[in-house]
Amino acid sequence: MKRIIEVLGKRENAIFLGVGGVLLLGGLVWGAMFWNAGAVQPSVSPSQTEPPGEKAKVISDPDAYRIQDSVSGFSALEIVRSKINKGFMATVKQGRVLEQAAAPDGVTMLYLVQRSKTGDSGSSSQIDALWMGPQSELAESAPIAQITGTDEDVLRRSTRLCGFMNKDEFVYTTVKNEGNELVYYLNRFSMKQRTATPLLELYRQESNGRTAPAVLEAKLAPDKRHVLVRDERSGIATYDLKTGAQARIVPASEAVRAGESFLLAPEAGVGLYATGRFQGDLWWIDWNTGGARQPFAAEPGFVDAGIDAGRKVIYYNWTHDRKPELALAGNKRTLLASSGVQIADLKGNPIKRFSLPKGSKEHLEFGGYSEERKTVLLHQFQLVRAAATDGTAAVVKKTTAWLLGDLKTGTMQSLQQVEVPDGWELKDMAFGSVLTDGGSETAAEQVFVNMQDRTYYRAKWKTKQPMVLPEEDLVLFADEPGKRVFVSSLTRPDLVVAALNYKKYNWDNQEFAWLNGHWMSRYHKAADGDKIYFFQIN
Questions:
Q1: Residue 239: beta bridge partners?
Q2: The pTM is what?
Q3: What DSSP character marks residue 27?
Q4: Which of 167, 141, 138 has its CA nearest to residue 67?
Q5: Among 45-59, 278-292, 477-491, the least confident range
Q6: Comparing C-alpha atoms, which of 219, 157, 218, 217 is closest to residue 182?
């Protein structure tokens, strides 16, 4: 699979992606999850959770089986495919798409699809795995979970894709009926054999009218042996797939709190959890080992933390104290008037600190990191209030400089802005972005950086979800409000070489999913069955 760098711009600090050799810079990780934006709403309060357990039940000598053999009543998933401009659309008859993920081969997209019905024997619900690729006419599917006699939300809220073991097998959580109990499992599914294999029994709950706990998040660790699960019974915990050992690593994390954040870097197996915005007592989590600690609790001021896109360092923007005027609330987001940036390793140990003089009227935040050059991209700005279109005063960042910080010496050097990036070479290029407007979800400043001559070019358009293909010298920008995709390059970012307008195609999920060949997948909810789109961006 070609190296594809996809960035979700959901924080004030966005990304800086380098492409020279193995250079990879970034301020956010692919796959990051934020519970204060679009989270599953909690259904169980902390007082309802069960006593802590020490182990999940390992399924000894598990048998692989086909789900449809155990519970009948649902026909095969029906997919109707039709051509659209620069791609195709697939309608999932009477199905609801829950999530999507690209398989490791970069050719196949996986979807979890739910169907429900009510008959003489009561209600039942089924979730199918649907996999297909834009370059194949085939759409294959098989059931992975079923439940009867209870609300369909129980199955939806408990079935989560954890990750791929290989290109043909994935791990997921689910729940099933066994007598008068609901039993929560970690399963392994083979797309090649269309069979499910139970790995762990997480816990059981009697179907006695109590609200069934939801699985809020589940991610497979890079070692393929440990899984992080956050649910409304055990909170944030890790499980060993071989021994069943459970480690509850963050206390009182069963229920989603207003304003909390939960950032995961699945490819590194680490994460950051905070009960509130800008709090220094956030948790560092390693679900390879089940370890957790609070490495930044000694900070006297506000802390705004993240992980770089290369999964090499943790960073946080900090303030000297906790004065309320340092966190300016906009209509959509709160912007932090940070005085400096702390770089730490993936275990939370401090490496280098960058700062402006105390009392400075300007502010400094993280823009990205180069492991190869041991260099940090820093964004220097002022926070100002500007008139918004609705007559209110919007909080915005006004850029005063972009800088490179040397991780060895701690020195900072300004970059020079250019209007025509002519003669740039791909090996020297990097891309950076920061969100700048407290009243907008998309307003961002995006820059292309020439690391060799220390210059940068500021992009003319504003989007929040770029994709970088370094080997092909391509950058794809998704303009969500305008429903367009722009295609540019790292070496000539002042030129737009192609564009796709998709205003007539609507969708609900905010994440793009990409496959080889510049294929983009999105989906849209519809009464007769959700619609899946594949667009090719040339």
A1: 227, 246
A2: 0.85
A3: S
A4: 141
A5: 45-59
A6: 157
